[in-house]
């Protein structure tokens, strides 16, 4: 499941952590906003790339891969 979530977390991190947050609530709001801003095109691209990422994972025998 992390194969699908990794790219999504990357998007969320880039958007929500673009600036430092002083409180957990501020970070939560930024994550919710970033989540709402993910486009269908971004999700489609992540899903389309899943077979390639799965193959890389199998070839890496479950270890880290890029």
TrEMBL record:
Keyword list, A-Z: Signal
Gene3D superfamilies: Ribonuclease H-like superfamily/Ribonuclease H
Residues spanning the signal sequence: 1-18
GO molecular function terms attached to this record: nucleic acid binding
InterPro entries: RNaseH_sf
Protein name per Swiss-Prot or TrEMBL: Uncharacterized protein
Record organism: Acrobeloides nanus
């Amino acid at each position: 499941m992390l194969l699908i979530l990794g790219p999504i977390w990357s998007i969320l991190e880039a958007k929500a952590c673009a600036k430092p947050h002083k409180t957990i609530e501020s970070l939560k709001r930024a994550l919710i906003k970033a989540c709402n801003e993910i486009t269908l095109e971004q999700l489609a691209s992540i899903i389309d790339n899943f077979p390639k990422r799965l193959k890389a994972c199998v070839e890496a025998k479950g270890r880290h891969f890029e």
